[in-house]
């Protein structure tokens, strides 16, 4: 009987593996096709000034409008795109669309985009980004690149050179998900980041957890000391905002201010706040 059970378990395991493999290969095919068919779309989440609530910019967050899987979040497709070698193509397509969308926004607003560690290893990365900027006429000094702390496990010298060359072009670089990636303080000092984004796990836990209070305050002090302003992500509700306000006033992002939405909804949001510039087709009308 034990033997039979073992066999059953073996078959169960084999089936689970088979369906896992099938899912993987469907996803891989889907991602490739999705890129070709333009199914990947930029969503935007507002970043606001905590004190005034004023919108300062948006972070672009990728979504896959898949005819098979529905609306898919990035954690499910970015790793696959990285593995099958299409992340650069995917990302460049999204950035091009985002730069186009952002041309209609008020010139005070910034656009942040996430970059994969795979892209950072490409020696032509900065060049490619500049080409996209030139093609769109979106000003470099309104673009911010976000790289996650885990990227620093790669070559610190290489990342440092890249940040410097992007900064020389006017592009800002921020350190995303700070506090989760075990980067050392001496590394941080060597890298000329423009901004630190505190990982949302610490921020969302603020109302419940004393340790998070300490961690967020410490990161805020560190940022102040290094001359790197802070963005707090994961401001989910009034309680989190109130706790955060005890510590300081930061650029903030989270469901409390707005979830990521598509380009059209972003325009609606901006129109309501008078932060939309007239589209080229509208200038004639506006002049009348
Ligand atoms: P991230 O850059 O740290 O982005 C913030 C994530 O937190 C987003 O998840 C956002 O929807 C979510 N979030 C924002 N506010 C709140 C909140 O108040 N509460 C909670 N619980 N979550 C909140 P999302 O959109 O699922 O993206 C996940 C990650 O995927 C991003 O984390 C980023 O690392 C990556 N990603 C997204 N778009 C791209 C892309 O175009 N390229 C690359 N390489 N990575 C991307
Ligand atoms: Mg998500
Ligand atoms: Mg980010
Ligand atoms: Mg983050």
The helicity comes to 40-55%
Kindly name the structural category.
alpha/beta
Number of extended strands: 9
Order of helices and strands: HEEEHHEHHEHEHEHHEHEHH
Outline the low-pLDDT stretches: 281-288
Question: CA-to-CA gap between the ends?
Answer: 87 Å
How large, in whole angstroms, is the Cα Rg?
21 Å
* Widest sheet, order of strands: 1-2-4-5-6-7-8-9
- Tally of DSSP helical segments: 12
Q: What ligands can be seen in this structure?
A: ligand C2E, magnesium ion
Task: Give the overall average pLDDT.
Answer: 92
What form results from the Cα inertia axes? Answer: globular
Beta-strand portion reads 15-25%
- Largest sheet composition: 8 strands, mixed, barrel
Domain EAL: 24-274
Keywords: Membrane, Transmembrane, Transmembrane helix
Protein name: EAL domain-containing protein
Characterization of the model:
With 288 residues, the chain is of the alpha/beta class. 50% of the residues lie in helices and 19% in strands. It has twelve helices and nine strands. It has an eight-stranded mixed barrel with strand order 1-2-4-5-6-7-8-9, surrounded by four helices. Strand 8, helix 10 and strand 9 form a beta-alpha-beta unit. Helix 3 runs parallel beside helix 5. The longest helix has 35 residues. The C terminus is likely disordered. The structure holds ligand C2E and magnesium ion (3 copies).
